[in-house]
Design a protein that fits this description.
Structural class: alpha/beta
Distance between the termini: 25 Å
Order of helices and strands: HEHHHEHEEHHHHEEHHHEHHEEHEHHEH
Largest sheet: 6 strands, parallel
Shape: globular
Strand content: 5-15%
Mean pLDDT: 95
Length: 369
Amino acid sequence: MRHEQLLAERRTRLEKTLRLERTDRTPVILMADTFLARMAGRTPADLCRGVEASSRIMAEGALALGPDLDGVNGAFAAGPFFPLMFMTRVQLPGRELPEGALWQLDEREVMTREDYDSILGRGWKAFMPAYLGERLGVDVEALAAERAHLPAALDRFHAQGHLVYGKLVAITVNEFLSGGRSMAKFMRDLYAMPDKVEEVLDIIQADTLAQLKAQILASPNPSPVVALSPARGASEFFNPKLWQRFVFPYIRRTVEMVSSLGLVTNIHCDSNWERDLDHFRVFEPGTVVFESDGATDMARIRERLGGRIALKGDVPANLLVLGTPEQVYRYCRELIESSGPGFILSCGCSCPPNAKPENVRAMIEAAIR
């Protein structure tokens, strides 16, 4: 019963924060798969042995942090699933890499320009499974079978009172092409054949949004948050006109679909988004969380978007690794006090595996003061 009560309290705290309302304290939700593995005395390679194994390890690590962590971004390690998101190979610890290494995208040109015609003719749902199996060597059936462990992974965290912040995760559709083509070749395509690329992106978007909607409707107890990752969607990678045509419209359509179902989209904004922050003002209050990885200045985000959409972040990796607990605590207190309602305390992107446990605990302590 204690765990059920904790979970209810933490969900209420999160939902109020998403609505930009005042709460009893700032929620703390971490993206921390490899760090949690370290807290449990395990390695990144251990996280790559299936959903069940990684969720058990991460849940153990979350408990080891103490009683005041509200939750985690996800209930299992995403690294082995990167080919499904980026359409390129991934090197995994314990397979291509040493057991203590981090998984890495092995990005190269695998998708060709001719594949654009295949997608236009066959559709994305028909194209993707064969591409994954034949070009990348992915065992699509084995990965699909891993989905059977997802409910148990979620229940494992809920049973110990921890929220799972983003039960469902989507990726912006430009990532499929920039990963499969390679970022350099994709950029060339945007200049050489922009209309065809846009047509392909529209087809992929329609299929992925339909799948995401079906998953939301099929979930008996959805999180109030759907995670959206434009991993290389920051405008600093693109000419502004290209970003406004090939990235932001697809973010906006995803937010609008998720919002129509009464949920909130957490946009994980890797890299620097400062020059295009004003675009996020089109979203209705309470429909979006802007999650900074540390490259986008939080003061700029607050100035342009504070009081309109919720914010999440932003404790730097270098501070968690090299700083002292006192420095971390002071940074987090300043962040909390300057952000006001609608703020979720988190690390900047993923908590580094070599973060000092005492620093992460100081971060959590700053939120419960």
